[in-house]
Fold Ribosome biogenesis GTPase A.
Amino acid sequence: MYINWYPGHMKKTKELIKENLKLVDVVIELLDARIPISSRNPQIDEVVEGKPRVIVMNKSDLSDTKSTNQWIRFFKEQGIEAIPVNSLNGEGLDKLVEGVQAAAKEKLDKLVQKGMRPRPVRAMIVGIPNVGKSSIINRLTGKKSAKTGDRPGVTKGKQWVRLKGDIELLDTPGILWPKFEDQEVGFKLAFTGAIKDEVLDIDTVALRLTEYLANAYPEMLKARYKLADLDEDPLKNLDNIAIKRGCIFSGGRIDYSRVANIILDEFRGGKIGYITLEKPEDFKDTNLE
């Protein structure tokens, strides 16, 4: 299966970001804490043109805490502050506000020195689809300012919203990139829901996820699906999960679509456990600056 998804509105979003970049002081780059590298759009570096940036690792409530802390150190070693956030309960958002204010301070101080009145920090939030931008915005405003949904492509156009901490934020739709050079990146984005399930072969996606979990988090997989043991063949593990969950057609055939949906939904909802799909040691030679 070859994964690629780049709807027309995403090209428009890239153009929208470029057009409005001059209006903002700081760019907030939102990552998925479960896939901190794969959820970084490689075009963002080019698009934001050296603007001060704050990196936010959202969905930290779903990630492996030990791995999240390792990633924070990884980013810090490259001169980047990464702030873990749980948009569901607001944990980490105070640090996000502080980070945005700190990133914009030098520019705003210079404006005041030139005789201009103090004004709110203007920020832009960018990130891949379904990474939680709207949920974070609603938390920071204290009201439902942005549409949310557990699927990519909910935010369709730009909108300005006023946040806590005297920050004005320009929200933009999620943006992927035209081609995934590494199909492993495509699968990780599919696992986490950044790509619409409707354009995927979800049976294959669930099989690949089951294979990864059997290798990296075997005890969690066994515990969730009450498996006595795991097989070296990922398809047999998928079959056994299907049997445990009653995903069987009449005649004993496996209902792969049904079991695939169950596994993907339970992974994305954190029901299998706290899981991180990428580890810093696998990206030692990656330069993020």
In short: Strands lie at 26-32, 53-58, 82-84, 121-127, 159-163, 167-171. The domain at 201-268 is CATH 1.10.1580.10 (Conserved Hypothetical Protein Ylqf; Chain: A; domain 2). The chain has two domains: 8-179, 201-268. The radius of gyration is 20 Å.
